[in-house]
Q: What sequence folds into this?
């Protein structure tokens, strides 16, 4: 079992994440597999946390929203969560929390309280960078904290896609300089920041690719609000094509998840991967871009800015338009200097799945052995 037994007893771990495959967030399933390769019996499930009486040595939280539901507004969930954690602890379980966000993206007080409970109850809090650790320990000085980087997604997507093949597959021009802003745009501030900087940047033959850019939808219901529903559909079917031509961009609707089979083609087709967040702790797009030998331009915020600084990728002040344009210009030069190859080497050394899996497995073993 690759040394992951303690006193000849295998460790059993439960990562709290949905079992269904309808997600574009593969962090938990990939982490689960990486830890499993070390010999630990680990599985992903939310249902198991609430309903199972199976004994687990480790309960591993990811996003607190995954525990109670992303739109939970049930005030009784707080007491139920506390009771369930107490029950698991009475069975001998230890708790680990990987900190993806500083706080919930919504202003829901119930979910905010869930964050507090999980942060307080966890025996170990895992941070993906020093920024997160320092920010967290300022208010939680006695907690046990460790740093484990965000893993790259090796062996997950097809990796042998040439830039020419990717552009052919996505029907994008071969001679364009493509900047890809992947992931859902969360608000108009992110849209305005990205679009203003891209249009201000004096670069010939540039193309912004943003698969989840527009706030329109062909499927969103909007309850009984007939006007919103049809305005959104009109925007989806009529405005998106018109705006793409007018703005000279390649963009889609925010609520349309990109198929995991298509995702690597978008990254492979890029010259630069642009992180469009104004305020975020982590971004999976940085390690994913590194895996595909790409230069990354992103905000100097959270662990994102820390990682970009350590790897000499361009970063910017998200509230300063000239700063963003300057970062794009530097990113352009770095593509000429093959900076993406250095990013790949860094990621394979520091962020590979085997290394990350072993580091989490060591935490599990230390907790089980009460170290």
A:
């Amino acid at each position: 079992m690759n040394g992951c037994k303690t006193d000849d007893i295998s460790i059993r771990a439960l990562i709290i994440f949905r079992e269904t495959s309808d997600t574009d967030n593969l962090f938990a399933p990939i982490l689960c597999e990486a830890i499993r390769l070390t010999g630990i019996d680990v599985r992903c499930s939310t249902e198991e946390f609430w309903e199972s009486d199976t004994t687990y040595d480790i309960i591993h939280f990811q996003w607190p929203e995954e525990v109670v539901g992303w739109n939970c507004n049930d005030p009784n969930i707080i007491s139920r969560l506390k009771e369930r954690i107490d029950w698991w602890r009475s069975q001998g379980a230890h708790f680990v929390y990987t900190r993806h966000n500083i706080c919930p993206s919504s202003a829901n007080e119930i979910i905010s309280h869930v964050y507090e409970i999980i942060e307080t109850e966890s025996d170990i809090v895992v941070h993906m960078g020093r920024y997160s650790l320092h920010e967290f320990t300022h208010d939680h000085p006695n907690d046990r904290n460790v740093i484990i980087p965000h893993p790259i997604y090796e062996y997950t997507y097809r990796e042998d896609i040439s830039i020419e093949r990717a552009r052919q597959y996505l029907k994008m021009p071969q001679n364009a300089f493509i900047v890809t802003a992947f992931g859902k745009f969360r608000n108009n501030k992110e849209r305005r920041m990205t679009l203003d900087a891209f249009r201000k940047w004096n670069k010939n033959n540039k193309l912004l690719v943003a698969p989840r850019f527009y706030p329109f939808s062909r499927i969103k219901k909007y309850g009984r609000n007939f006007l919103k529903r049809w305005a959104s559909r009109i925007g989806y079917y009529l405005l998106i094509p018109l705006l793409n031509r007018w703005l000279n961009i390649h963009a889609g609707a925010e609520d349309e998840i990109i198929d995991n089979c298509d995702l690597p083609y978008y990254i492979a087709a890029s010259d630069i991967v642009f992180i469009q967040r104004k305020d975020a702790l982590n971004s999976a797009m940085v390690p994913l871009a590194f895996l595909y030998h790409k230069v990354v331009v992103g905000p100097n915020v959270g662990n994102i800015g820390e990682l970009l600084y350590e790897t000499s990728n361009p970063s910017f002040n998200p509230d300063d338009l000239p700063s963003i344009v300057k970062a794009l210009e530097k990113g352009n030069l770095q593509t000429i200097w093959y900076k993406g190859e250095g990013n790949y080497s860094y990621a394979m050394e520091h962020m590979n799945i085997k290394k990350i899996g072993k580091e989490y497995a060591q935490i599990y073993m230390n907790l089980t052995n009460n170290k």
Q: What stands out?
A: Residues 5-151+352-368 form a domain with the Rossmann fold fold (CATH 3.40.50.2000). The chain has a mean pLDDT of 91. The chain is about 45% helix and 15% strand. The first helix runs from residue 27 to 36.
